[in-house]
# Entry
Amino acid sequence: MQTRFLIITGMSGAGKTQVVRTLEDLKYFCIDNLPAALIPKFVELCRQTSESNVALVVDVRGGQFFEKLLQVLEEIKASGQKYELLFLDADDATLVRRYKETRRRHPLGDSDTLLDNLSKERELLKPLLQKATYLINTTELVNTELKNKIVELFGTGDKKERMGIVVRSFGFKYGLPLDSDLVLDVRFLPNPFYVEELRNQTGNDQPVADFISRYSQTFEYLKMEAKMLDFLIPQYISEGKSQLVISVGCTGGQHRSVFVANKIFEYLSTQGYKVEVSHRELSNKK
# Structure
């Protein structure tokens, strides 16, 4: 399988950093500001490895090295390596505003005004703009919209597979998991801890699962949670969220939360989501 080779360029301040972050979430191997002269050697290295998706950012920060990029692209093409060129642009007013907000210096230096530097940069980039496989103008785009465009162009699999979901059980007595996005409290369910023969078992054990399943509120709760997640998760995906952590808590994190976390994991798996389950307090006992 040939490496998918993506070269990212465009105006400084047009969103290349956000694009790289999104591509990294999509499992691309990304390098920022690689000198153009080194690209052919890097292409050859990629051919000898198992990297399937590679992205390079090459722009005017490369100084004199950048001027060789057109020649390098011809060399890559002659070698038989296919590449795609993504060009990011935005209007001058937007770029000026972004520079003012970040207080960063334009890579062409301080000797001219920002608008003069932007004009010079556009002139330098003209030949690349003409070669672009994809052109994205970010003038009117917020980060989420830009991320969605990159996922549509370069993502693999359906939307459900692009967001990782972690379902984790925990005990409230040991504190909330700090990275939680959603916290579900299942302390209202009947507690197997108070049944002597179940006390030293966990929600992974069938007798505990049978005990919790005996109560109608368990199934009512699971039905309502499924309905809530059916609504929420597509909203998170559309907003560009790359990972969702669902923490399910009971008092000690041994019985009820483990059982419910397992049930949520099973449900989301049947819906086609990329999901994993973990049990914090059970792991801590090892």
In short: The radius of gyration is 26 Å. Residues 4-156 form a domain with the Rossmann fold fold (CATH 3.40.50.300).
